[in-house]
Description:
Elements: H1 6-18, H2 20-23, E1 30-32, H3 34-53, H4 60-74, H5 88-101, E2 104-106, H6 107-116, H7 128-136, H8 157-160, E3 165-171, E4 177-183
Parallel strand pairs: 1-2
Antiparallel strand pairs: 3-4
Helix pairs in contact: 1-6, 3-5
Amino acid sequence: MAALNQKSILDMIKEFRRNWHTLCNSERTTVCGADSMLLALQLSMAENNKQHSGEFTVSLSDVLLTWKYFLHEKLNLSVENMEVIDHYEDIKKTYDDFLKKSNMLDLIDVYKKCILISSCEYNANISPSQLRDFLSGRQYEVADETDLYVPTSPVSKHNQDNEKVLINCAVISKKNYLLIFKSAGEFEE
Length: 189
């Protein structure tokens, strides 16, 4: 099977953006990549764990196990002989609700919506298993690196290698958390 390159995904997203009015309610819909999907899943699992055991935590192994099952299930791929975590349906509902409330769609939702429109020729080149492999990082190919957008960081070059980041979690309400990312030097002891 040929590797799926990033250009195919970008072309699919461009086609989705061109046809947003038929596929979603707002042109300001945010499309989540694999990293945002995984973060949303992790937060959904932590929220679910908080409801069942009182702690807003989740282990990395549980997140990765659920991620694997989640990708297969959402792309309608075989989930036979795959381990599923307790309360999976609750986690999935929390994930879907989070995306909906945040006016976001993940790449799998975009893929499914693009299948609905006949003019979306890019999906014909992407199979569900290729999208799964792309999202899980197993197949990644860049045809021409000059087309890629590489974000720049405001961190100066001399600090980049030694920069440590601390995460400060502040509880805003029972269900909302604010994560503040600061360099280690900005926190007072």
